[in-house]
Amino acid sequence: MAGFQVISVLSIFCFCFQPIAALTIKLSPNCGTQCASTIDNAVAQCQNSSATSCFLLFTPGVYDLYPTSSGCAVSFADVSNLTLSGYGASVITHGRSMAFCFTAISTLTVTGFEFDMHRVPYTLGRAAALNASTLVLDINTTDYPPPQDPSYNFL
């Protein structure tokens, strides 16, 4: 009986030091202005993990991403074997920003996302009148941020 207990302890001891095959992190939607920091924290967990691969599961819902000074709402860097799965997830960018930027990723898979913009980064207009000598445009400036808005000056 004593030999069996020792073997069990050795089995557990050896198992604890083997690298984890995959790290799976489940992200929740509807996080408002905190979505980018939530995703950044998940990326940091991947970077600090001894797992051989990282799987970020974006559960169905809306993920709002806002501009940063770098122009990327979320940066993925220095991660190996990264999978982003977003079936049913809508990524909405606000302002002039790229949703995701990838740097130094050895293997990357991105599947199932829907990307959209809250508002396109230019003012929309419609032709109100058009004839041979005149073009009248009706431009809506009410809902569009003015050019001095700092969130639109990332370039």
Describe this structure in words.
The strands form 3 sheets. Strands 1, 2, 3, 5 and 7 form a 5-stranded parallel beta sheet that branches. Mean pLDDT is 76; it is low at 1-17. 19% of the residues lie in helices and 41% in strands. The termini are far apart. The protein contains 2 helices and 9 strands. The protein has 155 residues and is of the alpha/beta class. Strand 1, helix 2 and strand 2 (54-58) form a beta-alpha-beta unit.
Task: Give me the secondary-structure topology.
Layout: H1 2-16, E1 23-27, H2 35-48, E2 54-58, E3 61-65, E4 72-79, E5 82-93, E6 98-105, E7 108-117, E8 125-130, E9 135-139
Parallel strand pairs: 1-2, 2-5, 3-5, 4-6, 5-7
Antiparallel strand pairs: 8-9
Decide which structural class fits the backbone.
Answer: alpha/beta
Elements, N to C (H/E): HEHEEEEEEEE
> How many helices in DSSP terms?
2
Task: Compute the CA-based radius of gyration.
Answer: 24 Å
**Helix fraction bin:** 10-25%
Query: Roughly what fraction of the amino acids lie in strands?
Result: 35-45%
Total strands? 9
Q: Unreliable segments (pLDDT under 50, ≥5 consecutive)? A: 1-17
Give the integer mean of the pLDDT values: 76
Mind describing the biggest β-sheet? 5 strands, parallel
Distance between the termini: 70 Å
Overall spatial form = elongated
